[in-house]
Amino acid sequence: MTNRPVVVSTEPIDVERARAETPGCAEVAHFNNAGASLMPRPVVDAVVGHLELESKVGGYEAAGLAADRIDRVYGAAADLLGCAPDEIAVVENATRAWDMAFYSLPFGPGDRILTARAEYASNVIAFLQLARRHGVSVEVVPDDETGQLSVAALRDLIDDRVKLIAVTHVPTNGGLVNPAAAIGAVAGEAGIPYLLDACQSVGQMPVDVAAIGCDMLSATGRKFLRGPRGTGLLYVRRTLAETLEPPFLDLDSARWIAADRYEIVPGAHRFETWEGNVAAKIGLGVAIDYALGWGLEAIRDRVVGLAESLRAGLAALPGVAVHDLGRERSAIVSFTVGRATPVEVRRQLATQAINVSVSSRSSTRFDMEARGLEAVVRASVHYYNDKAEIERMLAAVARLARARPAGCPPR
Ligand SMILES: *Cc1c(COP(=O)(O)O)cnc(C)c1O
């Protein structure tokens, strides 16, 4: 099982099969894939099956029996991201993955961190903490005229005090895809470490660390990868990992080799902790293999097509504004409906078995403030969504847009 060849499909998605293998498709039109996707049957079975096994033979004994399946998560993640298995750490979420890389990097007074306008709140909070502790300066690279990070502006900001380029590939709050590979080229040329938050891109499009040229990358299991909650991935290039001392260590990421000495283990394993949710970890490996089975190109083609048709349908509705930026677009569609608050829109759609989410200013403050947005409705598609669900969603939003807000007199 460990060295199973990867079957990379080049077929378009068989939507009927995808839906048949997704129990949730019978229950709800799920447009909250950027929050947490519906898990496919093989992932649910793997997680539940391992919990059953633990209940029968004991947790340590079950892990022993499932050693190949546990190991496969590293191979699967390596196949997915185009790296080696020992460059992958499996942790409990993308934030902790990102933190383990970020807080391992050495910073001193006067060092500069360059980031993008779409950066995620948790990452910026970490920047601000280091700014306060170590006198680091945090600078936001301006966007270009399409709303993606301006690579020319990034290049102009580079000097030898820049110690990190950390950007979000696909933001949490809209359809933008930042030019990750062009940023990688600038970082590589200047020899500056490059940390990519790929939480929203991994699983919905091909993401290859060599093609992008990033040194570190974080992702989560439950979003477009369709894995279980409480799982995250960190990639760190081997030669960089060997130079980094993680902010926390335990008896698995390091060895206590003499009364007064420890030694950090090789590779990305140093960013993990010993204890974890084994069933979820196995489920993540199965989810990655399931995605590889469909093929990331096929997944991207399908989600981009669905998202574009949703965007076009929403933009054509009177009173509805679509807010997505960028030259290249993802599976995430952001919009507002007249004077209805996004929370109210989410509530109304939920009563019709349509799941969307709300992205508020505090998740992506640099971007939302710059655009004067308080909150947006976020509808994120996956390849198992179908045309009928999109029509149902558009009809429901059209009814909301026509409805007068409570307390407003007729015009
Ligand atoms: C969701 C998200 C994260 C955090 O992922 P967790 O798994 O919840 O820690 C980080 N960055 C972006 C862009 C996200 O959308």
Short description:
With 411 residues, this protein is of the alpha/beta class. It contains 15 helices and 15 strands.
Order of helices and strands: HEHHHEHEHEHEHEHEEHEEHHEEHEEHEH
In this entry the ligands are: pyridoxal-5'-phosphate
Stretches where pLDDT falls below 50 for ≥5 residues?
Answer: 1-5
Number of domains: 2
Overall strand count: 15
Annotation field: number of helices: 15
Which percent band covers the strand fraction? 15-25%
CATH H level, superfamily name of the largest domain: Type I PLP-dependent aspartate aminotransferase-like (Major domain)
Task: Give the spatial strand order of the biggest sheet.
Answer: 2-8-7-6-5-3-4
Mean pLDDT: 96
User: Distance between the terminal alpha carbons, to the nearest Å?
Assistant: 67 Å
Q: Tell me the Rg in angstroms.
A: 22 Å
- The backbone outline, from C-alpha atoms, is globular
- What is the CATH topology descriptor of the largest domain? Aspartate Aminotransferase, domain 2
Main sheet summary? 7 strands, mixed
Family: Belongs to the class-V pyridoxal-phosphate-dependent aminotransferase family.
InterPro entries: Aminotrans_V_dom, Aminotrans_V_PyrdxlP_BS, PyrdxlP-dep_Trfase, PyrdxlP-dep_Trfase_major, PyrdxlP-dep_Trfase_small
Cofactor: pyridoxal 5'-phosphate
Domain Aminotransferase class V: 31-392
